[in-house]
Amino acid sequence: MAPSAKTTKKTGKTRSALQDVVTREYTIHLHKRVHGRSFKKRAPWAVKSVVDFATKAMGTTDVRIDPKLNQALWAQGIKSVPHRIRVKLERKRNDEENAKEKLFTYASYVPVESFKGLETVVVDAE
Q1: CA 19 → CA 42, 48, 118, distances in Å?
Q2: What are the angstrom distances between the C-alpha of 28 and each of 87, 100, 117?
Q3: Between 50 and 7, whose confidence is greater?
Q4: CA proximity to 90, closest of 126, 45, 117, 47
Q5: Is the pTM higher than 0.85?
Q6: How far apart are CA 57 and CA 96, in angstroms?
């Protein structure tokens, strides 16, 4: 659950959660998250791991997975999940009338040639 107002210790100012619309690119190390998991549960566990990562990184409980990201996780089958995957996490406003949360996170796949030297990047809003 994303709080509606956050306080900072230094200034004591509050800021609205609706101002927190942001997009970032992350590299998720899936190999360490599915290590020790039985073969027939690896890909489903990887999908849940991406959801857990997005929840912690963006602070929203409502996480939606893009179908292309799901295909990329399942591309090598149920038991050989990719070691790493690059994702774009977008924290967006929830415009539905009876929504429980004001914000949700949309996770999409970013294809890359190599993961060498990649860091977390804040993507400018288009």
Answers
A1: 36, 27, 27
A2: 7, 28, 14
A3: 50
A4: 126
A5: no
A6: 23
Tell me how far apart the alpha carbons of residues 122 and 16 are, in angstroms, rounded to a whole number: 20
Structure tokens at 42: 């690896």
Buried b (16+ CB within 10 A) or exposed e, 45-74: bbbebbbebbeebbbbebbebeeebbebbe
Would you tell me how many other CB atoms lie within 10 Å of the CB of residue 92? 16
Tokens read off for 99:
């929504």
Q: How confident is the model at residue 126 (pLDDT cuts 50, 70, 90)?
A: low
Say if CB 100 and CB 40 are below 8 A apart.
no
In angstroms, the Cα distances linking 10 to 7, 13, 16, 43 are: 9, 8, 17, 43
CA dihedral 21, 25, 27, 33 (to 10 degrees): 20
Burial group, residue 13, by CB count within 10 angstroms (0-12, 13-18, 19+):
exposed
Paired tokens of 39: 């073969």
